[in-house]
């Protein structure tokens, strides 16, 4: 399966794997599943998100030192780590999602450190075996990524890189040369999190990326409602939504979370009549 956006704009949903919100609840039934109970909740949320129209799921691996993550995703990461969720569990989850939804885009989303601890080669093999389409290591700098890129190419996984408004032209060129699937344009510098307004820098960055690459460009950071998604659709191929979804999960019980997330995602492509013109 290749990473593809079926609709315009495409939607990429970020989930912290293993985060089932604050409610301890009773873990949902694990029958037939080989992943830890709390990942079963993430699986149900991911399936609901896909069925509601998310083209790609970013499966976030919880990490203790998540430098680019804002408070909402940091809290999700802490909850998931407290439940003992590790990289190998997230790969097992990816495998189940791939089996359940053969056409969904799946990206393993983590940092350099957990991958090096796992072993780069072993990670590449396991990620490919899980059926994921791509990998995004948020702190991997393209200029230092030759070994990583070679491994991704060996197992036919798309390496996805982050481009920022502050990225110099040479870096954008290198990102364009080595990326597959799509390029992730960060709408502004700083950390993840919901904002009122979409950053003005985003359109200019996408334009700069398009000079070097024909790949689809997804814009993320601060996108939380349908107006933002529509705006992104004017100049980019897809919108990434993270904190807004993770916050809804935080406020829901495990039973509610899949439905709450599905309704939110369905709403992201629905414009008010005045804006639909
Ligand atoms: O949360 P936001 O503002 O909607 O942004 C997406 C983002 O959460 C997700 O892609 C992401 C989670 N952690 C990251 C670290 C770096 C870059 C991106 C991310």
UniProtKB/TrEMBL annotation:
* InterPro entries documented for this protein: Aldolase_TIM, RibuloseP-bd_barrel, Trp_synthase_alpha_AS, Trp_synthase_suA
Q: Which residues are responsible for catalysis? A: 58, 69
GO terms of molecular function: tryptophan synthase activity
EC code: 4.2.1.20
Pathway as given in its UniProt record = Amino-acid biosynthesis; L-tryptophan biosynthesis; L-tryptophan from chorismate: step 5/5
Substrates-to-products reaction catalysed: (1S,2R)-1-C-(indol-3-yl)glycerol 3-phosphate + L-serine = D-glyceraldehyde 3-phosphate + L-tryptophan + H2O
Provide this UniProt record's keywords sorted from A to Z. Amino-acid biosynthesis, Aromatic amino acid biosynthesis, Lyase, Tryptophan biosynthesis
Q: Which Pfam families match?
A: Trp_syntA
**Record keywords: Amino-acid biosynthesis included?**
yes
CDD domains from the entry? Tryptophan_synthase_alpha
Q: Which residues form a coiled coil?
A: none
The task this protein performs is described as: The alpha subunit is responsible for the aldol cleavage of indoleglycerol phosphate to indole and glyceraldehyde 3-phosphate.
The record's section on PANTHER family has: TRYPTOPHAN SYNTHASE ALPHA CHAIN, CHLOROPLASTIC, TRYPTOPHAN SYNTHASE, ALPHA CHAIN
Q: Tell me, how does this one assemble?
A: Tetramer of two alpha and two beta chains.
Q: Which family does it belong to?
A: Belongs to the TrpA family.
What protein does this entry describe?
A: Tryptophan synthase alpha chain
Q: Which organism is it from?
A: Acidicapsa dinghuensis
Q: What is the lineage of its organism?
A: Bacteria, Pseudomonadati, Acidobacteriota, Terriglobia, Terriglobales
**Gene that encodes it:** trpA
């Amino acid at each position: 399966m290749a990473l593809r956006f079926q609709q315009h704009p495409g939607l990429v949903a970020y989930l912290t794997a293993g985060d089932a919100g604050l409610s301890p609840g009773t873990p949902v039934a694990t029958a037939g599943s080989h992943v830890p109970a709390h990942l079963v909740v993430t699986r149900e949320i991911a399936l609901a998100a896909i069925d509601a129209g998310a083209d790609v799921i970013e499966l976030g691996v919880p990490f203790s030192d998540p430098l680019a993550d804002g408070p909402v995703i940091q809290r999700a990461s802490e909850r998931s780590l407290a439940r003992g969720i590790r990289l190998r569990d997230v790969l097992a989850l990816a495998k189940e999602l791939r089996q359940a939804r053969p056409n969904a885009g799946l990206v393993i989303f983590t940092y350099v450190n957990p991958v090096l601890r796992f072993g780069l080669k072993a990670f590449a093999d396991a990620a490919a075996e899980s059926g994921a389409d791509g990998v995004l290591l948020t702190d991997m700098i393209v200029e230092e990524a030759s070994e990583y890129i070679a491994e991704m190419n060996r197992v036919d996984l798309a390496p996805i890189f982050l481009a920022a408004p502050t990225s110099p032209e040479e870096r954008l060129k290198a990102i364009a040369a080595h990326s597959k699937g799509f390029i992730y344009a960060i709408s502004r510098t700083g950390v993840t999190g919901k904002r009122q307004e979409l950053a003005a820098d985003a359109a200019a960055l996408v334009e700069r990326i398009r000079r070097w690459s024909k790949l689809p460009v997804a814009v993320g950071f601060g996108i939380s409602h349908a107006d933002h998604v529509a705006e992104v659709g004017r100049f980019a191929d897809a919108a990434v939504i993270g904190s807004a979804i993770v916050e809804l999960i935080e406020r829901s019980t495990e039973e509610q979370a899949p439905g709450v997330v599905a309704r939110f995602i369905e709403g992201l492509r629905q414009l008010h009549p005045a804006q639909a013109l």
